[in-house]
Amino acid sequence: MLELEDVRVSLGGFPILRGVSLQAFPGQITGLVGRNGAGKTTTLRTIMGLVPLQGGSLRLEGQDLRPLPAHRRAALGIGYMPEDRRLIGPLTVEENLLLPAWAIGLPGAPERLRWVYERMPEVAELAERRAAQLSGGQQKLVALARALMHGTRLLLLDEPFEGLSPAMALRLGEILQSLRTEGIAVLVAESDLHRISALAERIYTIERGEIQDPGEGGQ
Ligand SMILES: Nc1ncnc2c1ncn2[C@@H]1O[C@H](COP(=O)(O)OP(=O)(O)OP(=O)(O)O)[C@@H](O)[C@H]1O
Asked: Which residue numbers delimit the ABC transporter domain (predicted)?
């Protein structure tokens, strides 16, 4: 289980997260819903270790993540899909998938790549294409596949549905649902409650860096 308790973050001298507490459980999809600027991206970046924490606690299966830099968190099984995808255009899809795994020295990367391709055959079909040649929707699926390469325990997805066609959004939902049986905890930042409410077991609403009412999803 991922557990944030009273997490506080300031950026450029301004308090951005003002006591965020939430939990995300293995085999479940958890939504973090809020308007633009509410603090969703900052929450995900804080969990990944890309933003320093000023206060509060951050644990994965009881382990304190705070002392660990981002690459150590990735090696622990945390995958992050940023909103802007950050694929490397001149590299092929497969190279994009393998690069972070090489960078953190992920053991069993070829086996994990096969597993990702089985889950997402549409990404396997693009393996030899250069990332820059893909549509925005295809790039999103590749960015999800890349996060899945090392996201064996926890996946952090920033607005994964944004810009997808209805058909692709449906497919993304199917893929996320299929991860339940793998016991992966999935935390999805989303600005549109309706897009996530049918998928998520649990939904948190964030406003101005504060969690509002933690409640059950699926309404
Ligand atoms: N490096 C920074 N320095 C100062 N303020 C920042 C910095 N990064 C983000 N902020 C501010 O922090 C607040 C939260 O931003 P954040 O990106 O976490 O929101 P968000 O909910 O993900 O919204 P969006 O969907 O627009 O990204 C915003 O007011 C933003 O302007």
From this structure: 2-219
